[in-house]
Specification:
The complex is a heterodimer of chains A (652) and B (492). Chain A is mostly helical and 652 residues long. Chain A has helices at residues 11-36, 38-64, 95-118, 125-144, 148-166, 173-204, 213-218, 220-227, 231-247, 256-259, 265-274, 277-286, 288-293, 296-319, 323-348, 352-380, 393-396, 398-412, 418-436, 441-466, 473-476, 483-498, 503-511, 525-547, 553-560, 562-568, 573-619, 627-650, and strands at residues 4-5, 77-84, 87-93. Chain A has a three-stranded antiparallel β-sheet. In chain A, strand 2 (77-84) and strand 3 (87-93) form a beta hairpin. The radius of gyration of chain A is 30 Å and the shape is globular. The relative contact order of chain A is 0.07. The mean pLDDT of chain A is 82. Chain B is built from 19 helices and two strands. The longest helix of chain B has 36 residues, at 325-360. Chain B is globular and about 70 Å long. Chain B starts with a helix and ends with a helix. Classes of the chains: A mainly alpha (652), B mainly alpha (492). Chains A and B meet through strand 2, helix 5, helix 6 and helix 27 of A and helix 7, helix 12, helix 14, helix 16 and helix 17 of B.
Chain lengths: 652, 492
Amino acid sequence: MVINSLININQYVIAAFLIFLVPVIMFPLILLIGKFSETGKRISGILATTGIFISFILSWFIYSNGTFSFNPGDYYFNFEFPWFGNITWGVFVDPLAITMALMVSGVSFLIHMFAIGYMGKDPNKHVYFAETSLFTGGMLGLVLSANLVMFFLFWELVGLCSYLLIGFWYFKPNAASAAKKAFIVTRVGDVLLILGLAVLYWMTFSSNDPLSIYNLNTQIPLIISRMHSNLDLAIAGALILGGVAGKSSQFPLHVWIPDAMEGPTTVSALIHAATMVTAGIYLVARIYPIYLYALPWAGLLVLYMGAFTAFLAGTIGIVVNDVKRILAYSTISQLGYMLAALGVGIVLGESTVGYSLYHLVVHAFLKALLFLSAGSILFMLLDVRDIRKMGGLWKKMPITISAMFIGALTLIGFPPLAGYFSKDAIISLSYYGYLHNTALFWAWFLLLIGAFLTTVYTFRMFFVVALGKPKSYAAENAKDPPWVMIIPLIVLSGLSIIYGLFQTDFYNFFNGVYQMTTMHFDIPWYIEWLPFILVLFGLLVAYLFYASYKLNPDTVARKSGIFYRIVKNKYYLDVLFTNIIAERFMVILAKLFYAIDKYVVDGIVNGVGIIFRILSEYFRKIQTGIVQYYAAIMLAGLIAILITVFILIGGI
Amino acid sequence: MDDILIYGVLLLPLVFTIIPLFTGKYSKAVSTALSGLFLLYVLYIFIIEYNRTVYYNMFTMMNGISFQVLLNSLSIPLVLLVSLVVFIAISYQNKSIENSYFSYIFFLEFSLIGVFISYNLIFFYIFWELVLIPSYFMLGRWGGPRRDYTSLKFLIYTHVGSVFMLISIFILGWKDGFNFSYSAAFPAIQNIPESLKGIVILGFFLAFFIKLPSFPFHTWAPDVYVESPTTSSMIFSGLLSKMGAFGIFAIFINKNAMGSYLPSWMGILMIILGLTSIVYSALVALAQKDLKKMVAYASIGHMGFITLSAGVFVYAMANNLTSYMDGIKLVLAGGLFMIFAHGIIIPILFGSVGSVERSTGTRAMNDLGGITKMMPNLAFIMVGGFLASLGLPGFAGFISEFSVVVGTWIAIGFWAFLLIFGMVVAASYHIWALQKTLFGPYNNYLGKIGDMLSNELWPLLLLLIIAFILGVYPYPIYHLFYSYSGIIMGGV
């Protein structure tokens, strides 16, 4: 077997393979021992958690060794085998990949630990832990892939696991339907992504490993100079962005994520923090040179898709009452920030990837924290998800709600928590971009308003849940969950608080990829503080409406009339996709084609058959039963055929 | 390779044909053992002859026509596929069927292997027609309520295609001195008058595209697949359609055979037929309420990828995209790999649907629901099979769909949106069917039902594992097809 690599096999390569293979192998292992023994079922959670902890240790091992010095040329390694045709598979590790691997395995480990408590009583918990293990393994494989086709394999594996996990309680009709919706909507993105890969394939097919991430990161300028055109690159970028929209739930393919809340809350935490949705952001960052060298509209598409989604999802978050859905819309909105940060890079250069990834990591901590604390609440409230039925929980479950408070403050970007350093940096970044290119103004504006919206929806949720009086029997009897669920909350709270300290170090580590120094942008101080002012304003608004009840939100809703209705109905996108396209248009189209198949295509076949039957009825009269008569006709026929043949031969 | 081994490939199934008739109540066990041993035998040949070509002249008749066989990187994997699917189907079949059923299966295996290894058009044609005989009986004797109509339709429809091919073969034979060997017959096309060339090409075209089946010649297929007993559906959809695919790659577009003589618009026509097959079958499948019929249309959809890949190659040849040939190789290999992938995956679907029908007594999706609760093993197999069928990475189907989709871009550009539309619809109906049958609340009207029987579970699990292995590590098969696509392009 030909091995195509930049380095020889060594312990780091083996470690990199094991990072994703260990959790993947846990899948059949847990499934089998859980199926055949009760003890196996009991220890399934511990097994899965251990597997992911091993991945985390291995990621740390690679991260902490000297491979990542900042000398050019030795901050990555690439190791590939032939796979099929001229496509390869293998591992590619650079600061970007290892950052993601650390984040994914670390956060997933904490969520798994929480799930030992949360899923403890489920009769099928071995299936759950097998699937989440595979889910995490898939994400780690995606992160470390050396080739976009292999990347796509894991990309779909992650999608498959989310399908299975959202539908984990398959007997609930909502869960089954949400799983289906998640699969089909992300599938729309995925086929666009395949097409994007097709365009890229035809740009690189003559090299010895087309679609390899190493080649795409190093040889794009070469390819551009050979093809004398960057239109194809822009088309590829736009198509790939379709896949990103599906996976990272950006407008207009974001509709699956709120429904995906039907699964267990720990699954939501995995999807929103560690695995799945960050895959799309990672993809754009992974093949960033494509957007950098393509026609600028591809990058602007990235920017405005992100900025618009950040704004749009923020508005919907304000009117939703399901605690998990509020968090879901918040995720959509924050992913918009990450994508927008990447989009700004077409003006400011590759170093914005670091800004995006920093927010991604911070968001992973805080969103895992928020989902797990929401999970603790639902665990105690027997899965009542309506925030209007909660209330007064701060007194009842102090540790959980304090953790949620830290998560909420981090989410809105309150200094000095980590969110302040990650999110406000992106808003400032977009303003700095606007100073270079006026096309970025509205992106900055949307992101800025997004900061205000984030504050309002987050603290609307928090105030209603935590303050006031308990509004249901379950809420009155809530208490803090067991320790196995509390420890992850504390760890994540700690990370959310202190991670801001590492902002500059993170950017520096990261920019090693592009051998660039971290950018210092030069914008007026009042622009820099504007997001924080809006956050304070948002807090005031949320306090007046939802904590002190000085103002009544229903009055505002009534007065705003049509705007409220549009937002409340999620801009009618669900109606458009589900009710009009899927249930009307596609069903009618399918029935039409079936009718054509039955009556036209098959009708012709049967029609020909009937014609022959009628003809045979007619010719039956010739069949007199006299053998000589038949012989004469056969002879005549034979002669006719022979004459025809001879004429044809003679005619040459 | 020893000559005797070659005889064994063809003649062992023929010998097996009579054995089940004399083994009484053990015929199922004996047939399973025989087909399993034959599978190992073929696997042995696959390994020792990996990526090699064996040409052998079995015998020469008095009139100078010889029976030559060719085992190469296309026919050996196909023979392997035939023996695998036959083994799976026989293992899946329950015992309570007449012994002659197994005889028919072995005779079908013999004829199919004959089709795939013949290197002489006359013998190719004989085997091609021989296939119809066991199929007709398997369908006509053990089929569903509409078996009379369906078996007749199947016989006449595919026979009409074959007759056109026979005319073409005779025209070729008349120009090559009645030798009929591939190596002699196809170069003779250049000596044929222009007016007849079209007829020759049309004859092969009809035979192959009816058998494939491709839109618009596909309407026999859903009827046949639905009316057949489960094991016959597995064999028909998994293997019979491969005759058409084999014909397309080994004869129709092959530069060493007819490929050089195709008219320039043939590529576009095949691309259109392939695209239409994919989109059309997906939409029709979406409208189905019968699970088995839906699977039948899914099978037609997969065949669209084969037509499409062949079409892209012919188009590239006609439009002189020679600088892209490295990439086109990937497309052809993808189409060829679909033969194998589909042959493994579609029996899983028919098998699991068969188990649903046996256990619940119905195939109508609206009467099912939530049966995962009662049939967890079936749910595992069925989810796996359906995901493999919709082209999810990690299963063999993805490798070929990806190759074809990627390659199609160079030929048709943004028309590829039609293709991906078809793929999304395909994903939708697969997932939708899973939701309606397996998930949601249990339909209590079904009463208490049992899970898959062990003779149903293990064969399908084996296929699922193979589909998975070939999805992750397709190299052993894909490499053969990748080198065969070089032959299609005119290499030796």
